Task: structure prediction
Amino acid sequence: MPVDIPAVVLSNTRLSPDYNVIALAAPEVARLAAPGQFVMVKTAPGLDPMLRRPFSIFEVLRDAGEIRGLSLLNKRVGAGTSLLYDAQPGDVIGCLGPLGQPFVPVEAPAHAWMVAGGVGLAPFVTLAEALAARGTPMTLFYGGRSAADLYYADWFEARGARLILTTEDGSRGEPGRVTVPLARELAALAPDARVTLYACGPTPMMRAVADLGAAHHRPTFVSLEPVMGCGMGGCYSCVVRVTRPQGTPPTHFVRSCLEGPVFDGSALVWDALAGGH
Result:
C-alpha cells in the first residue's frame, strides 16, 4: 500500500537552468518502491498549486546500505515544477507513493535495452540497479537535444551498461533521433536473441520504439506520463485506450495510474495518445 508522508528536502542538485535532482527523506516510500513506479508530490502547502504532480522515482538513496530516501529528476516547465526546482534543503514536500505498475526486470541471459528521451531517463536508474543485481546485460539508448542534456550517462556506464547516445545537434554520440541506432541494432540481432525493450520519453519516440519492437518481435514496455490529478484512480484524468484481445468492444479505457504507468507497448492504442505525453 502507498504511504503519504511529509518528506524533508535533503538536497537540490541543479543540473542546468531547467533540470534538477531533488533528494527527499522518504524512506517509508523508497523501501516499497519497484523500478518504474512513481510518486505524487505536493510541491507547496496550501492550494496553490492545488494538485499534486506525478514523478517517476529516480533514485533510491542509501547511506551505508540503509535506505534513507528517494530522488526525483525534475524539469522546470510550470508552477509546480518551478517550485521543485527552487526548493531548499529543509523544505517539506508531501510525497505519496509508491504508485503504479512497475517494470519487470528480465533475467540473464536475456538482454535489456532501455530507450530514454530527455527526462524520460527518470525510471531507468532503479531499473538499471535491478538489472545489474541480476547480472542482466543492458544497453541504454539515450537521446537529447545536445550533450548538455545527457544527464547521468556515465552513471549507467559505471554499472556495466553499454551506451548508445544521440543528440539532435550532434554534440555527443550520433546526430539525430535515438530510434535510428535502435532500428539498426535491432536489425542486426540474431533471430534467437533474447532482448526486451523498455522505453520512456516523448510519446512519438515511445510509439516508434513500440513499432520497432513489434516489427522485430521483441517484447516492448513503455512508461507513460499522462496528466494525473490524484494518482490513485479516483479522478479518471489519466485514462488511456488499450486493446482488448478477442474482446467486445476491441478497445477499452484504463487508468494509467493503476494499470500503468508501465504498459505493454503492443497493447496501447497509440493514435489516442498522439496529442499528449
